[in-house]
Amino acid sequence: MLKQILIFVTTYLLVSSEDQFRTSSSVLHAKTQPKNVAFEDFGNYSGQSSTGMNYKKTYFISRYFKSFWPESKSICNSFNMELATFETLDEAQNFVTILEKNEYFKANGRFVLVDGVTDLQGSPAEWYWTNSGEKIPYSIPWAAAQPDNFYNNEPVLSVGRISMDDKVGFNDIPANYAARFACQKTELIKN
Ligand SMILES: *[C@@H]1O[C@H](CO)[C@@H](O)[C@H](O)[C@H]1NC(C)=O
């Protein structure tokens, strides 16, 4: 009986602390955009790709659920989005800033999964975007002491904090680590 009461109280505390961060604006978002209730718009970016294409992106985070990297990629695709990629260093740094400033992520977030993978063969390892198959064309803004390929088992890319007080940075992570993830919608802008 005591055990059941403890489980009840703990569940209540977990659920209510999560509720605190559901601001009125996200409730409004849920009411007015029922299709996107699983994801939250975390920010936008406008830039130019290395091939000179102007584009605008919106990033959507799976605020209310976590998943492994392979499933995350499929889930983004099934919502007509892609697991997030960053075409340039500027876009990668902009995404770091978006996570740095986000109060919900500050309180609850460790990592969000993004599209990059490594084959773990090289030293140093090379990183690729699976969407394009291209090598990531700039020096990734890693978190301190990353990538470390911990236990020789960190082939996918994430962005977040190693511990709660750290700055946000990129980090290699196991493919079977359940985390929130970032999908993107890209719009090409005609010059
Ligand atoms: C991103 O841009 C859209 C309009 O294009 C806007 O509705 C939305 O609020 C922006 N998101 C953020 C987090 O600023």
TrEMBL record:
Sequence ranges assigned to domain C-type lectin in this UniProt record: 54-184
Gene3D superfamilies (UniProt xref): Mannose-Binding Protein A, subunit A (3.10.100.10)
UniProt keyword terms in alphabetical order: Signal
InterPro entries: C-type_lectin-like, C-type_lectin-like/link_sf, CTDL_fold
Signal peptide stretch: 1-17
Name of the protein in question: C-type lectin domain-containing protein
